[in-house]
Design brief:
Distance between the termini: 24 Å
Strand content: under 5%
Radius of gyration: 17 Å
Shape: elongated
Largest sheet: none
Order of helices and strands: HHHHHHH
Amino acid sequence: MNSLVSAFLVGLVGVFCMLDSRLLGRLNFEQPLVGATLVGVVLGNVPMGLAVGAATELVSMGLVSVGAAVPPDMVLGSIVASAFACLTGASVETAMTIAIPIAVLGQLFGIVFRSLIAVLTHSADAAIENGNFKRATHMHIIVGTVLYSL
């Protein structure tokens, strides 16, 4: 499979998993085990996807959000680590050394994008005050979702 096609498919899996609890209800696709397994299916190495997913799920189970503290984004970490392991033939242990830093970096990006989405809320409020409901809907549903998907 072409590298560009592989990257695009893994990206689609990531967007699907991240939007699970935001648009689809709560189907539990936003779990490291499920996301990494889907990457394994897409890249043709299901056992590696399952192994990386199980290891990152174990780490994820130990993360607790207390107060305003936000745990690392282990779904993103598992997806990237699973893709790395499937494409390079690396071991699960090597993939885990990538999963944790990517999860921390992903959470930092998530905070930045949520801050941008908060700014969109004020813009949507101004549009509502002016009677431009279509623009407000566009800001909330389309622009917010696209920003969060990135």
